[in-house]
């Protein structure tokens, strides 16, 4: 077993690029510093894992995608074989979106706060899947348009992000504060021992900003990235398409500036998720991405740090067309495709057994030598 130490330039626990001090919304996010703090996964551990895969009692390559996953996990942990995942944490970033009031969803905006309560009560899909699959759930209210319990609302930047077809989702200061909050949440979770992070989302209307961000960051037009979200009808589809088109036009104008992209066409929940994803990478913690919202946040994260993508796997493929476009741009291949379009982190959780299977097979199978099994026929 190799246990390769982290490279010396690896930032200390919690120190990566988060500006110190009170400052509130005025403290800037130093994106260059954050990007520098994201290092590559451990190549030594990856090589050792690949070699061990080759020595296990199975035809070479016969565990398919599990082999690649095990190597990825070894690289992220800096250990071959990788350790079992013991503290898998889903963080659901919740927020309302002004665009929902334009009639782009099949459900009313008050569902966001009601579902936050449902997740906290342990009765939502993510709660059930987390219990079933061995994970725990945290909710972070970034912009729910209602009061939520103090332990959930500590990072809240406002009640509802702006209506992105006609105004910015957030001020620059709010976008920075939300991004930094996501970084801080990642730090808190890693410091508490998380060995795998899953971003989840809850917010009526959030597939509209997700489509907008994906459209501008992958250079696709509104109709191509548009999806039916919670299940909208054709009339609502037309309204949503115009909203996505208009918000994309506004967001395209700030494309070179990732934080401004989040401020103009995103929202507080997505901004926090982007900060969370990049900081997870800076803290050398693997991530299973969920659906179209985390895909959009990941695209912004990729703009901040292209290396961050090495720390992420695509848990699943959502039915939202923007999700496939985002994953293509991230060069990620989804682990499962079960037609989910729920968010909350549910699709990513479905992939967790695959990751556990990848870890266990690499760690626990015998080698040809240990088991006295003959290797490939010579010649
Ligand atoms: O994860 C996905 O790909 C996904 C696809 C469609 C809908 N959702 C969830 O549904 C809500 C957004 O849908 P909508 O139609 O209100 O934009 C939000 O709470 C998301 O978590 C999520
Ligand atoms: C009920 C409901 C639950 C959700 N979970 C995530 N998005 C959702 C949207 C709705 C409408």
From TrEMBL:
Residues 39-53 have a biased composition (Basic and acidic residues). Its EC number is 2.4.2.21. It catalyses: 5,6-dimethylbenzimidazole + nicotinate beta-D-ribonucleotide = alpha-ribazole 5'-phosphate + nicotinate + H(+). Gene3D superfamilies: 1.10.1610.10, 3.40.50.10210. Belongs to the CobT family. Catalyzes the synthesis of alpha-ribazole-5'-phosphate from nicotinate mononucleotide (NAMN) and 5,6-dimethylbenzimidazole (DMB). This is Nicotinate-nucleotide--dimethylbenzimidazole phosphoribosyltransferase. One of its GO terms (biological process) is cobalamin biosynthetic process. Pathway: Nucleoside biosynthesis; alpha-ribazole biosynthesis; alpha-ribazole from 5,6-dimethylbenzimidazole: step 1/2. PANTHER family: NICOTINATE-NUCLEOTIDE--DIMETHYLBENZIMIDAZOLE PHOSPHORIBOSYLTRANSFERASE. Keywords: Cobalamin biosynthesis, Glycosyltransferase, Transferase. One of its GO terms (molecular function) is nicotinate-nucleotide-dimethylbenzimidazole phosphoribosyltransferase activity. InterPro entries: Nict_dMeBzImd_PRibTrfase (IPR003200), Nict_dMeBzImd_PRibTrfase_bact (IPR017846), Nict_dMeBzImd_PRibTrfase_N (IPR023195), Nict_dMeBzImd_PRibTrfase_sf (IPR036087). Coiled coil: none annotated. Residues 1-24, 34-53 are annotated as: Disordered. CDD domains: DMB-PRT_CobT. The active site is at residue 344.
